[in-house]
Design brief:
Largest sheet: 4 strands, antiparallel
Order of helices and strands: HEEEEEEEEEEEEHEEH
Strand order of the largest sheet: 12-11-13-14
Length: 175
């Protein structure tokens, strides 16, 4: 996964959304108990909570962490959080940010491996979605009208390929 932007304390990272933590070298976060428990005179807190003192746990407000609920409104809940996507966006499987609804399509068309002056050539044998065609490094043009695939880094590319080159979302990736 991608690191959260900015510096995050180990208790906040491992107590909430993190699976690994570290400055220069990632270390796997230790397992969390299901309920607060005292071990060797210190409280061990469940996921979504951090140690306040030797005997008490406090809810972590994940919404205050940089990078949470991108393109969404964040609601802190006891021991967790919830992202509510803004119009035109949908929640991805990480449940920590929303992606453009343009990232998923069921419409299939011809993917072309070559494009010159609006002339598409070298079609793939199977009909595929624009996202699969243009988010791969293979497609240069797509569809009946030879629509040019957007340039990497452009707003349109980032909308249909939010995970970058080589990745695409399908309906099973979103909720």
């Amino acid at each position: 996964g991608k690191p959260l932007p900015g510096l995050t304390k180990q208790d906040d990272c491992c107590g909430s959304v993190g699976i690994s933590w570290g400055y220069h070298k990632c270390t796997k976060c230790p397992p969390k108990p299901e309920h607060p428990k005292i071990h060797n005179g210190q409280v061990e807190c469940p996921l979504g909570y951090k140690k306040m003192n030797q005997t008490n746990c406090k809810d972590i407000n994940e919404c205050l962490m940089s990078g949470m609920c991108k393109n969404a409104n964040c609601l802190n809940t006891r021991g967790s959080y919830r992202c509510t996507c803004k119009p035109g966006y949908m929640l991805d499987t990480s449940r920590s940010h929303c992606i453009s609804d343009k990232a998923v399509s069921v419409e299939k068309g011809t993917c072309f491996r070559s494009l010159s002056r609006r002339n598409c050539s070298l079609p793939l044998s199977q009909q595929i979605t624009k996202q699969i065609c243009c988010c791969s490094r293979v497609g240069k043009g797509w569809g009946r009208n030879c629509e040019k695939c957007p340039l990497p880094g452009s707003v349109v590319f980032n909308e249909i390929c939010p995970a970058g080159h080589g990745y695409h979302y399908s309906r099973s990736h979103i909720q």
